[in-house]
Write a structure and sequence with these properties.
The protein has a single domain, classed as Transmembrane di-heme cytochromes, Chain C (Fumarate Reductase Cytochrome B subunit). It is 72% helix and 2% strand. It contains twelve helices and two strands. Helix 5 packs parallel to helix 10, helix 6 runs antiparallel to helix 7 and helix 9 packs antiparallel against helix 10. It starts with a helix and ends in a 16-residue tail after the last helix.
């Protein structure tokens, strides 16, 4: 209950700050600057004007931004969405998914609150990835209304993602702290390179999940900040250029992590989607893939038939 209270408090703070900024922009447009511009002109016109200003001047970060944006970001993104899934396809064909006794004893792994938070976090982050790729490849898929709509969905998804991300930082930080056995997990690559069911050193969350968690939450905070700078928060042109470079570069790293997490959650372990839905994992799976996790005996009381 205390965690829920803190989460609601954080959520209230975000909405209060947003409402205050809205009122301030309405009352004093001259002082509000770019915030007021978003309220008086269309988002498409504002974005086009901003991009023209960012890419039109080749001083300082201008040339670097134009070169990266025009030649390298889309190529790096294309490489990521082809090579990473290709490697996982090879893994699936050669080694295959791990199978555990879904009908045996079950351990409550994810309570209801964490499942709800994870669902909205996964949904909003997936939309961020999808629309982000659409923006990167915009000129190759027709541009126009489709890409403008993707920009709006991207912005809205970013705002929504703030809420579950903050709640994750309240619920999971203790379980996500690095432990000595995480090094051993990384050396073994979690046992995913072997078909044998041999216990691997991991607590409730393994080293890979911890890396993804901190990348998405802390990296997501950087993405949110740079994204708001790009959309216009009163920063100078050079800051906008630098923010755009950081946003796209970090975004490609998060894209690789996202594809990895998606494969591990959907394909690498048979039945994992059901675990995210019900909150229960097979005891066999917990004992092997989370061998350091000390669950209560009462948690394994549920038996599925």
């Amino acid at each position: 209950m205390q965690r829920v209270f803190y989460c609601l408090l954080l959520l209230t703070g975000f909405f209060t700050a947003g409402f205050a900024a809205f009122v301030y922009a309405r009352e004093d447009p001259a002082a509000a600057g770019p915030i007021a511009d978003l309220l008086t002109v269309s988002s498409a016109d504002y974005y086009q004007a901003l991009i023209a200003e960012v890419a039109g001047n080749w001083q300082n970060y201008g040339q670097l931004f134009t070169t990266l944006q025009g030649q390298w970001f889309w190529k790096a993104s294309l490489l990521t969405i082809t090579v990473v899934p290709g490697l996982f396809l090879l893994h699936y064909l050669v080694i295959g998914a791990k199978h555990f006794d879904q009908g045996g004893e079950q351990v409550l792994f994810f309570p209801l609150l964490t499942r709800v938070v994870h669902f909205f976090g996964a949904l909003s982050f997936s939309l961020l990835v999808l629309t982000g790729l659409m923006i990167v490849f915009g000129k190759y898929i027709g541009g126009g209304t489709l890409i403008r709509s993707a920009r709006y969905v991207h912005l809205l998804s970013a705002m929504v993602f703030v809420v579950p991300a903050c709640m994750m930082l309240v619920i999971w930080p203790k379980d996500m702290l690095p432990r000595r056995h995480d090094i051993a997990w990384l050396v073994l690559l979690g046992g995913y390179l072997s078909r044998r069911k041999k216990p691997v050193p991991a607590g409730k969350f393994n080293a890979g999940q911890k890396m993804y968690f901190w990348s998405v939450t802390l990296g997501g905070a950087v993405m949110a900040f740079t994204g708001y700078v790009i959309w216009g928060m009163g920063a100078d042109v050079e800051s906008v250029r630098l923010a755009a470079i950081m946003h796209n570069t970090l975004g490609m790293g998060l894209l690789a992590f996202y594809l990895t997490h998606l494969y591990m959650a959907v394909f690498a372990i048979a039945g994992s989607l059901q675990s995210m839905k019900s909150g229960y994992k097979p005891k066999e799976e917990v004992d092997i893939l989370h061998s350091r996790y000390k669950y209560q005996q009462g948690q394994e009381a549920k038996r599925r038939f």
